[in-house]
Amino acid sequence: MRKYLLPVLSVFGIGFAILTVLTGSKSLPPSQPVVDPGEPPFRSSVAGAGIVEANTENIAIGTIIPGVVSEIHVSVGSRVNAHDPLFKIDDRDLKAQHVIRQTALRVAKANVRVEKAQLDDVKDQLVKAEILSQKKVISADELDRRRYAVQIARARFDRARAEVASVRAQVKETETNLDRVIVRAPCDGKVLQSKIHIGEFAPAGVTQTPLMLFGSTEPLNVRVDVDENDAWRVYPDATAVAFLRGNRNIKTPLKFVRFEPYVIPKKSLTGDSTERVDTRVLQVIYSFERHDLPIFTGQQMDVFIEAPDRATPPGATPQAVGEKTQEAR
C-alpha cells in the first residue's frame, strides 16, 4: 500500500490542478446593467454625461459676518423671492454697539452746539474790540488776541462738526452690519440644501460644505460634458435629448443655452471600461422645463446631441448634411 499510495495521490493532485486551471480560464459573462441605458435617437450623435443644476447655477450661500445662527426663516424646498431673509446671525453685540454709538452721536451734536456758542461769543467780543481799538481804548495786541481767539473757536467748531460726521458714519456702519447679519436670497429661487441649524456657528468666507445651496429651478439646466475629441461636432442649433439615469423612459428635449468657453479636465465619470480619464471636456449648457417629470437638481442624465459623423468635413452642421443627402437622392 505504501508503494502505490504516493503515486496515486500525485495523479489525483495533478488532475485537480488541471481542473482548477481549466475552470479558472473560463471567461465570465459581463454583468448586466441594473437598467438599460438610453439609446441615441439620431443616426449620428455625440453622447455626454449631464448633471442637472439650477439655471442660475447652484449658489453656495454664505455669510460675511461670522457668528451663531439665531433664526432660520426657510426650509429645504422653500421658494423665496429676491432679498427675502434666509437666516440670521446673532446680533446682540451689534445692537449694544449701536446704542453706544447713537449716544456718542448725541454727545457730539451737543458739543457742536457748545462750540458754536463759544464761537459766537468770541466773534461778538472781536466786534466790540475793533470798535474800542478805533477809539484807542485797547491796544493792538489785545485786538490781535481777540482775532486769534475767533480763529481758535472756529477751528474747534469745525472739529466738533467733523466728530459728528465721524460718529454718524460709525452709526451707519453698525446699521449696515445689523442688516448684513440677515442673509438674504440673491434672486428668486428655491432652497436646494440646508446644512445650518439654530445654535450652530456659521463661519465667514468660503466653506467646504455650503451653509445653504440655492438656485432658480424654473427651468432646470443640464451641464453636459462633451469629450474634447467630439467637441467640434457639437453645434448650437443641433437637436438634443436627455434620458434620466436609471430610467430611459423618462426623457426630455433640450434647448441650447450656451457653451462654457473654457475646456476643463474631465471630472464626471460614467464607469465605462473604455472611458478615458486623462482627457478634457467641453461643457455645454442646455435647459428644459421640468413640468411633472421626476427630475431633481443633482441627478445625472445621459444626453445625446445630433451631430455629423466623423467623416463629415468640419463646419458642416447636421442640417446641412441632411440637405445634401436629400439632394443626392
Provide structural commentary.
The protein has 329 residues and is α+β, with helices and mostly antiparallel strands. Helix content is 36%, strand content 26%. The strands form 3 sheets. A 6-stranded antiparallel β-barrel has the order 1-10-14-12-11-15. A hairpin with a 2-residue loop joins strand 11 and strand 12 (247-259). Helix 2 (92-134) runs antiparallel to helix 3. The longest helix has 43 residues, at 92-134. Mean pLDDT is 85; it is low at 270-275 and 324-329.
Produce the secondary structure layout:
Elements: H1 2-24, E1 45-54, E2 59-61, E3 67-72, E4 79-80, E5 85-89, H2 92-134, H3 140-180, E6 182-184, E7 189-194, E8 201-202, E9 212-215, E10 220-227, E11 240-244, E12 247-259, E13 264-265, E14 280-288, E15 300-306, H4 318-328
Antiparallel strand pairs: 1-10, 1-15, 2-9, 3-5, 3-8, 4-7, 5-6, 7-9, 10-14, 11-12, 11-15, 12-14, 13-14
Helix pairs in contact: 2-3
